[in-house]
Design brief:
The chain is of the alpha+beta class. About 30% of the residues lie in helices and about 15% in strands. The protein has one domain: HIT family, subunit A, CATH 3.30.428.10.
C-alpha cells in the first residue's frame, strides 16, 4: 500500500492514488501542486474536483501558503466553466469532514445555468431567534478570529 504509507493513513486515499497515477481519471488540470479531474458522479457535466497533490484532509489542514494557489486554480476552473462549457456561472464548494466523501481536501467546481434544478444549498436553512442571538454569535466569531494568528 504505497499510497497509505505516503499519506500516513491506515487505508489508501483514492485521491492520493489518482495523484500518483494509480487510477483512472479524466484529468483537466495537472501542475506541480494540484490535480483537477472530472467527478465520476457529477452534479452536471463538467463537475470538476480540484485537490492538492500532497494529502491534506481539510481546508484547515492546508498550509497557508497553498490556500492562495488552490483558490487561484478554482477561480480558473470556474471561468472555464463559462467560457468553454457555456454555463452561466458556477458553484464552488468544499466540505470539511461532514459530507466529505473522500478524506482528502477537494474543491467542487460545478457549472451552473439558471433553471438547472440545483436549489441553492443542499441543506435546510435556519434563522436566528432574534437580532440579539445573531449579534452574540457574531461577537463570538470575531473574538475567536482575533485570537487566531494572521496568515499573511
Amino acid at each position: 500500500m504505497a499510497v497509505a504509507a505516503r499519506t500516513g493513513r491506515s487505508s489508501p486515499c483514492v485521491f492520493c492514488a489518482l495523484v500518483a497515477g494509480e487510477g483512472p481519471a479524466a484529468v483537466v488540470l495537472n501542475d506541480d501542486g494540484f490535480l483537477g479531474f472530472l467527478d465520476r458522479r457529477p452534479l452536471f457535466v463538467g463537475h470538476t474536483l480540484l485537490v492538492p497533490k500532497v494529502h491534506h484532509e481539510t481546508l484547515t489542514d492546508l498550509p497557508p501558503d497553498l490556500v492562495g494557489p488552490l483558490f487561484a486554480r478554482a477561480r480558473l476552473l470556474a471561468g472555464v466553466m463559462e467560457t468553454e462549457l457555456g454555463s452561466e456561472g458556477s458553484f464552488v464548494a468544499i466540505n470539511n469532514r461532514v459530507s466529505q466523501s473522500v478524506a482528502h481536501l477537494h474543491v467542487h467546481v460545478v457549472p451552473r445555468t439558471k433553471g438547472d434544478g440545483l436549489r441553492g444549498f443542499f441543506w435546510p436553512r435556519t434563522t436566528y431567534a432574534d437580532d440579539e442571538e445573531m449579534a452574540a454569535i457574531a461577537t463570538r466569531i470575531r473574538a475567536a478570529l482575533e485570537r487566531e494568528p494572521a496568515d499573511g
